[in-house]
Amino acid sequence: MSTLVGAERRRRQAEHMGQPSFDDAVARIMAATSIGELARGGHSYRQLAKIVHPDAAGAQRRATATEAFARLSALRARGAGNGGATLRTKTATYRVGPVFASGDIAEIYADGALLLKIPRDPADNDLMEAEAAALHDLQTRGDKRFRAYAPVLTDSFVHEDQAKRRRRINVVERQRGMLRLDQAGRITIPDAIWIWRRLLIAIGWAHRAGVVHGAVLESHVLIHPERRGLVLLDWCYAGHRPRAIVKASEAAYPPEVLHDRTASPATDIYMATGLMTRIIGPARMPEPLRRFAAGCCYDAPRMRPQDAWALLGEFDELIPERYRN
């Protein structure tokens, strides 16, 4: 059976089950003029988001999925901007404004100086709880001097919608003037060096508070180029027994996560090193940093460095003094 025939059969099976195929979902999203139009057609935002989310698409479809998902998010943001929803807890009232950003498992909505992180699927509530616990531990057990390296959690609560679906919502302070590392364009070697240093500081701080991030990836890092600031996002994968991985970035994970579902400080060091290696690129990597990176990326965790702050000292010995800040 040819690939095209197989795809057509899967499309018909999906339609028979009441769920549009990937191609149909993309076509309907791109043709729609409002989120209400999609809803009137019998397709919920969550259903369509699940179908066209880039993490769920294969490599050949990822570009199309990214465009469709962005369009779907924009339609929803436009609808939210025309009134929005209000969420009330015992201690606070939040207005769900336009979509601020889309994460791995959640949509992030702006409410003034705050961001509300709402999971698309209630099945991911456990990941939201893991993030809230990790951020709480960082704020209460971490060295206060380094708090700027992670979002500040201001609230975490469960909201039940009209369909009786319960979602864990995390509220964090908004980071202004920063951009995601995967959207920052080409990074110069001097910029890569300070970003690498900041990453080691961030994960070392977390490790001393007893927290392993578990998913140090480009999309989980915010940077402020002028101020040389860095914030590590998406702590929902935190823990020594990760509940999930980012499927689209599976190749970036070390063996212990993929095979044993375990994580340690050595895991974060491996992933941070891999991230910076990808950012700089093999052709541009200075030889001393190449050797440094190789020593952080052994398959066996016990062979890798275990202390990010001690590793920072070694890193500083390899770079010009003017970059050690």
Short descriptors:
single chain, alpha+beta, Phosphorylase Kinase, domain 1, Transferase(Phosphotransferase), domain 1, 3 domains, 5-stranded antiparallel β-sheet, 3-stranded antiparallel β-sheet, 10 strands, globular
Quaternary assembly: single chain
Give the N-to-C terminal Cα separation. 60 Å
The rough form would be described as globular
Give the helices and strands as they follow along the chain: HHHHHEEEEEHEEEHEEHHHH
- CATH homolog superfamily of the largest domain: Transferase(Phosphotransferase) domain 1
Rg, Å, rounded? 21 Å
* Strand line-up in the sheet with most strands: 3-4-5-7-6
Which CATH first-tier class of the largest domain would you pick? Mainly Alpha
Give the % helix.
Answer: 40-55%
Q: State the secondary-structure class.
A: alpha+beta
Which residues form runs of ≥5 with pLDDT under 50?
A: 1-17
Question: What's the β-strand tally?
Answer: 10
What CATH architecture label of the largest domain applies?
Answer: Orthogonal Bundle
Number of domains as seen in the coordinates: 3
Biggest beta sheet summary: 5 strands, antiparallel
CATH fold label of the largest domain: Transferase(Phosphotransferase), domain 1
Q: How much β-strand is present in the residues?
A: 15-25%
Average pLDDT, to the nearest integer?
88
Number of helices: 11
InterPro entries: Kinase-like_dom_sf
Protein name: Protein kinase domain-containing protein
Organism: Actinoplanes missouriensis (strain ATCC 14538 / DSM 43046 / CBS 188.64 / JCM 3121 / NBRC 102363 / NCIMB 12654 / NRRL B-3342 / UNCC 431)
Region (Disordered): 1-20
